[in-house]
Amino acid sequence: MDDSLQKAPRGTILVVDDDKGTVELIRMMLEARGYDIVPAYSGQEALSFLDQAAEQATGWKVPGLDLVLLDIMMPGVDGFKICQRVKDDPRLCHIPVIMVTALERTADKIAAVEFGADDYITKPFQPEELAAAIKAKLQVKAREEDLLRRAHELSILNAVAFAASYSLDLRQVLANAVEQLIERMGVDAVAVFLVDDRAQDLVLAHHQGLASGMPANRQHTRVGAGVVGQVARAQRSVLRVGIDQDPEFKGVAGKDRPLSTCAVVPLRSSDRTVGVLEVYHHDPYYFDESSIALLEEIGAQVGVAVENAQLFQNTQILLIKSSALSQATGEGE
User: Fold this and answer.
1) Predicted model pTM
2) d(CA 114, CA 192)
3) Residues 6 or more apart from 192 whose CB is under 8 A from it?
4) Tens digit of each residue's pLDDT (9 = 90 or more) over 121-147
5) Domains of the chain from N-terminus onward
6) Cα torsion for 33, 150, 235, 167, to the nearest 10°?
């Protein structure tokens, strides 16, 4: 890839405690170590945040949530219920939960484990102790997510490849592949440009998820011109972040949410480029090295399907012309 990936924070931590002083202390300590903090001052507030996180989860990714720090004794919804909410949800269950509480009884520690807590730290705590526990749990989470990611990526690749190869009608190939890509990968919008070898142009062939379609000035581009043309010529992916401020993407808008980033990937068959895939998302941190690599594999699969459909289409045209020519020759005799 030509463009560097957007640097994300070390992790986003939900801190749940009805004592605002404790939340502020933890926030300052962890922000100094590079973490993003989301405060929740009640159990109900935490549950609302978790509901939103679960709705936004895609595969193994839970945007805006990497770990939960949780007090136990809170009015209304206590820490045990919040922990259970996390661990009972298949979309969130791999998120580590660390209980940070003044309760020291063995019975409380056993209860925390039974509700699914990954660690238990008693107040008052040393900052180094909490930081070490967070680092250790995030490392375990990263290994688990790597396995989840690989399985999820394989399922996406298989689904898109099957959808793209299901038909030899070019329009159906593109529609099937894009629909599966949006559904399985959780992206906001996709546009497909195909190479016109005669004119050395790239022409918009299909799009989904854009509010008003593709702006007229981006529907045709020369090979080598603009980000789409450059990707087609170089056969290398490019990631653009901050496209809402990028003049080249002026007028490109998402149907449901503002678009922030775009991965531009070549559609390849054998050693030639047959088109370019633009994949959009609202989260500037959404695309990383693994997701770009996945999109490149998808681009190769879709590229082969596109070339097969084009060959079939050309063969059909030749057969029609041959039949017409034979008929004309027969009538001439």
Assistant:
1) 0.66
2) 50
3) 174, 177, 178, 204, 205, 206, 207, 267, 275, 276, 277, 278, 302
4) 988 888 899 999 999 999 999 888 888
5) 12-141 (3.40.50.2300), 166-304 (3.30.450.40)
6) -140
